[in-house]
Amino acid sequence: KDWRLIFSADSAGVPPERALPLGSLILEECEGELVVRTRDDQQQFDLLEIFDSFISDQVCDLFKILAPAPHTPRITVDRLVVCRETWRFAPVDLPWAFRVDPLERYIEMRRWTKAQQMPRFFFVRTPNERKPFYVDLDSPIFGEIFAKAVRSAASARGERITITEMLPDPEHAWLPDDDGNRYTCEMRMVAVDQLKPPDRNVYGTR
Fold it and tell me: Is 202 left (phi over 0), alpha (psi -120 to 50) or beta?
């Protein structure tokens, strides 16, 4: 059964039988471990299960196969790409972004990305933005967005801008629609070890 932890009066349409209001829970020690139970003793959960969404937001992007480096090549195992090609720079390493004239700024950006052997399409992540944004080098508009992000990131001391190749790019997207247009597709899977049962059941009904 899936549960939803409720923090406010607005339950966002969660059915009552799946809702866990925060005020209905008690934290206590059980056999040397912290567990959370409902006040009516009907349900008991592992503490990590309760904090799952909070922890996931903090750690989901922390796992990296390779340590950060100024340049990481694309890493493949057979036909599986495990790491996209990535570049990391301090904002001061991108002087073209601070040019006053927009045309000059765009031209120098193209020269700089060509010297770094970057592809036409990539994603940029800056210290000021949690999510990466898309850049098409053939578009002056995207070039301006890129430049503004670099200038904004200049205030973050010691932080770096991360540039990652778009893969697959538009020419290699494999999911077609009825008209033959192709799209990027993301598939997510969950791996569960069913061979080793937990030492004790702290989920579900007591």
Answer: alpha
